[in-house]
Amino acid sequence: MIQRFGSNERMSEAVVHNGTVYLAGQVAGDTAQDAQGQTRQVLESIDRLLAEAGSDRTRILRAEIFLADIGHFADMNKEWDVWVPAGATPARATLQAQLYHPDVLVEIVVTAAL
After folding, report:
1. Spatial separation of the C-alpha atoms in residues 17 and 4, rounded to whole Å
2. pLDDT, tens digit, for every residue of 5-53?
3. What beta strand segments (E) does 6-105 contain?
4. CA distances from 16 to 5, 21, 86, 92, 102 (A)
5. Which residue of 9, 28, 108, 111 has the fewest C-beta atoms within 10 A of its own C-beta?
6. Residues near 45 by Cβ (< 8 Å), separated by ≥ 6?
7. Would the pTM count as exceeding 0.85?
8. Residue 17 and residue 103: Cα distance in Å, rounded?
């Protein structure tokens, strides 16, 4: 069985299949904030979506973090390091990428277990 959350004609915010939650890339709603503020918003969205799907941040298996400028790495990590649970750090990749809009500084994709 496949469950979809927050679906529209283009995509789903989250998909659950075979005990795994796949989240779409999450970006900040308020792109006027700096990279740290945008990261905080993204992590709040991830928490909300994981809870809706029946999981939480302690069950994240993998995270892919896309930064518009790798110079934002330290600011992003200020939020990440406080948010990620000790002893439950996921496999992670962080890279610089051209994101869909110039005001978007951070996009995060996670995969988690139920």
Report:
1. 9
2. 999 999 999 999 999 999 999 999 999 999 999 999 999 999 999 999 9
3. 14-17, 20-23, 60-67, 91-96
4. 8, 4, 25, 20, 31
5. 9
6. 26
7. yes
8. 33
